[in-house]
Each structure stands twice: as structure tokens, then as C-alpha cells.
Specification:
The chain is α/β, with parallel strands linked by helices. The chain is 38% helix and 26% strand. The chain is built from 9 helices and 10 strands. The chain has a 6-stranded mixed beta sheet, with helices on both faces. Strands 2-1-4-5 form a 4-stranded antiparallel beta sheet, covered by helices on one side. The protein is globular, with a radius of gyration of 18 Å. It binds adenosine-5'-triphosphate (ATP). InterPro entries: AAA+_ATPase (IPR003593), ABC_transporter-like_ATP-bd (IPR003439), ABC_transporter-like_CS (IPR017871), P-loop_NTPase (IPR027417).
């Protein structure tokens, strides 16, 4: 049977001095899947994403991306893998002194140094179409609303056609309607571009739209794993408490 795993995490342990943040985590993410990562503040959700893209070294265990063990790669090989991964981090800001067009051109030129201006123009136009913001092409970030900035940030992360997208709190700070729009955009892009995604979120509106499966980090472990409705309807006192208090509900 074909191996559908794009990310394989085996017995991952990450410590900061004597503080164990991730303790022996094992997790597979399959091609085309949208995994949501929950957990209270400080439980290692962002650390997990940073380990996956090789931005943070870990103490033991393995992370394989497309069957390649990232801790055994040279910087050059790791950069090749990273070209295939897009990330939208918490508070990821657009470059304020650049127009929307220049913001989108930036990652393209960096990742594909030999790309022609014509290809760049087509890609920028098509990607803006995907996020329904063609008219913003010559605007400066200061002229955009919070929701529009998120859309452009999303466009910038997907313009290089990554196979895997990592989102860290993609809807933080947005009102419920914009949260819904951004979450629907995430799922539509994922379907159109056949991407796999891992999203850290506290936001149930977002999770309900995008999640195929969810995990819950607690006490440095994956404490719960399953379909989102299994977690939200669980009779487990901790989960009941989390989902009734921690998350903004519509
Ligand atoms: N570079 C670092 N050096 C030392 N400690 C760190 C570092 N990065 C993260 N930590 C610690 O690791 C723990 C997990 O941090 P992380 O940012 O992954 O939490 P989180 O679950 O994403 O939280 P939140 O929901 O608040 O964003 C925290 O205690 C944090 O202080």
C-alpha cells in the first residue's frame, strides 16, 4: 500500500533546560489531511511547528518529511524541504514598506531565483485571485484591513505552491465573521491546491471549518486525538472545561 504520510514524528522530545515541553510525541500526518492542534497556552504547540520545519532543534526522536529525516539533512537539503512547506505564523506581518505585489514577489524570487518576470506576474495575479483580492495589488499594507492583511499573508505563504502548510493561530484577533471567511479560504485553498495542513488554533469556529482530525497537547503529551466532534462532545472533564471556557464560540 502506498505510504500517504507526509509528516512522521517519532518519539519527539524537546526540552528547554530542565523543562520538558514535548515528551515522546508520536504523530503521523497524511497527505491531504488537515490536522488541528489544540492545547492551553504554553503547551508546546508553536514549538512543535518549529521543530517540524527544522527551525528548532530537538533533544531526541525523529521527524521525517516526505520520508526524509530532517535532523540528518545538510542545511542545503533542509532548505530544499522547506521550499515545499509554507507557514503562516502568529502575527506574521507583511513588509510595510512594500506593496502587496512586492510582498508576494518576495518569496517567489527567493525560492525560484531563475523565475521570469512574466511567470512572477502570472503567479501574483492568480494567487490574488485565489484570495479574492486582485484589486489590492498596488496597495500598501497600511491601506488594508486586518482581514485583508491575513488574506494577503495567506497568499504570500501559498504563492510558492507548498505541499504542506503550517498555520499558527491563523485567525487570532479577527472578528467571528472574518474568522469564518479566513477559515473557509484555508479549506478551499487546501482543496484546490491539494495541500496538507497542520493548524494550531484556539478558535473553535476555525477548527470546525478546517479540521479533519484534531490532537490535544497537555502535560507535554498528545493527551487526546480524534475527530473534532469526538473531542468537543467528550465527557472527559478536562476537555469539557477547555471547550466551554477557552474557545470563542459564535
Ligand atoms: N526559544 C525558547 N527558549 C526557551 N523557552 C521557550 C522557547 N520557545 C518556547 N519556550 C517555552 O516553551 C513552552 C511552549 O511554548 P509554545 O510557544 O510552543 O506554547 P504554545 O502552546 O504555542 O502557547 P500559546 O498558545 O500561548 O501560543 C513555553 O513554556 C515557552 O516559554
Amino acid at each position: 500500500m502506498a505510504d500517504t504520510r507526509i509528516v512522521e514524528i517519532k518519539n519527539l522530545t524537546k526540552r528547554f533546560e530542565s523543562h520538558t515541553i514535548l515528551d515522546n510525541i508520536t504523530l503521523d500526518v497524511h497527505r491531504g489531511e488537515n490536522l488541528v492542534v489544540f492545547g492551553r497556552s504554553g503547551q508546546g504547540k508553536s514549538v512543535l511547528l518549529k521543530c517540524i520545519i527544522g527551525l528548532m532543534p530537538f533533544d531526541s526522536g525523529k521527524i521525517l518529511i516526505n520520508n526524509k529525516d530532517i535532523s540528518k539533512l545538510t542545511i542545503k537539503e533542509l532548505n530544499e524541504i522547506r521550499k515545499n512547506i509554507g507557514f503562516l505564523f502568529q502575527g506574521a506581518a507583511l513588509y510595510d514598506s512594500m506593496t502587496v505585489r512586492e510582498n508576494l514577489e518576495f518569496p517567489l524570487k527567493k525560492i525560484f531565483p531563475n523565475i521570469s518576470q512574466r511567470e512572477i506576474d502570472d503567479k501574483v495575479k492568480n494567487t490574488l485571485e485565489l484570495v479574492s483580492l486582485e484589486e489590492a495589488i498596488d496597495k500598501m499594507p497600511s491601506e488594508l484591513s486586518g482581514g485583508m492583511k491575513k488574506r494577503i499573508g495567506l497568499a504570500r505563504s501559498i504563492i510558492t505552491d507548498p505541499e504542506l502548510m503550517l498555520y499558527d493561530e491563523p485567525t487570532t484577533g479577527l472578528d467571528p465573521i472574518t474568522t469564518k471567511e479566513i477559515s473557509e479560504l484555508i479549506i478551499n485553498l487546501q482543496k484546490k491546491l491539494n495541500m496538507t495542513s497542520i493548524a494550531v488554533t484556539h478558535d473553535l469556529i476555525c477548527a470546525e471549518i478546517i479540521a479533519d482530525r484534531a490532537i490535544f497537547l497537555k502535560d507535554s503529551k498528545i493527551a487526546y486525538e480524534g475527530k473534532l466532534d469526538e473531542l468537543t462532545s467528550s465527557s472527559d472533564p478536562f476537555l469539557r472545561n477547555f471547550f466551554s471556557h477557552e474557545i470563542v464560540k459564535e
